[in-house]
Amino acid sequence: MSKSKPHLIAIDHDDYHASHVGHTADGGQFFLTTPFVPAIGGSAGREFVAVYLFDAQGRFLEARIDDLGTRAELDLERAQRTGLMERVPKVEAIRTDEYPTKAMRPAWSVLDAAKLRETFAIELPDWQTALDGVIREVRGT
Predict the structure, then answer these.
(1) How distant is the alpha carbon of residue 110 from its chain centre?
(2) If you ran DSSP here, which 8-state letter would residue 69 be given?
(3) How many C-beta neighbours within 10 Å does residue 29 have?
(4) Which residues 6+ apart lie within 8 Å of 90 measured at CB?
(5) What letter does residue 94 receive in the DSSP assignment?
(6) Rounded to whole angstroms, how far apart are CA atoms 37 and 45?
(7) CA-CA distances (angstroms) from residue 109 to 13, 103, 105?
(8) Where are the beta strands (DSSP E) in 12-74?
(9) What are phi and psi of 81, to 5 degrees?
(10) Is the Cα dihedral 99, 33, 123, 62 positive or negative?
(11) Which sequence spans correspond to the domains of the chain?
(12) What separation in angstroms does the CA of 9 have from each of 12, 60, 87, 103, 116?
């Protein structure tokens, strides 16, 4: 098996791990997630919303990551007041079997990154370390 990086990675809709995957009105694709920095010890933690946009062929276009503040600060009124709701693509619910995919996927699966690490010889960072890096990148520090 090749040790080169893949050109495309399928992110298929499912009802649990990837429930916010779909198509935009212009035929593009998106993946919406809500990463967070946990509240531990004296830290209040932080909440984020991130949407990753791809063209119709699945090529990455951009990531929009918004810092929503602490969980105590987070509410719908604040999101509407700051214009955040206008930046998020409208999501229409579909069943898993309605989402077209090139590869057949099991009805339910749990992400195990072991094969990804072995196949492509990539060492994945701890999720907290990776999130810290994204936050630094977004803040420009």
Answers:
(1) 16
(2) E
(3) 19
(4) 25
(5) -
(6) 5
(7) 11, 14, 8
(8) 21-23, 29-33, 36-37, 46-54, 60-69
(9) -65, -35
(10) positive
(11) 21-107
(12) 9, 10, 25, 11, 11
CB 61 within 8 A of CB 53: yes
Which is it for strands 21-23 and 46-54: parallel, antiparallel or unpaired?
unpaired
What pLDDT does residue 33 have? 83
Query: Rounded distance, CA 22 to CA 92, Å?
Result: 8
Place of tokens 């699966």: 109
The tokens 């690490």 sit on which residue? Answer: 117
For residue 81, give the 3-state DSSP assignment. Answer: helix
3-class secondary structure, 131: helix
pLDDT mean by block of 10 residues, the chain; 141 residues = 69 68 85 81 82 86 85 68 72 73 64 74 75 78 66
> What is the model's pLDDT at position 52?
87
Contact 92/22 with Cβ under 8 angstroms?
Answer: yes
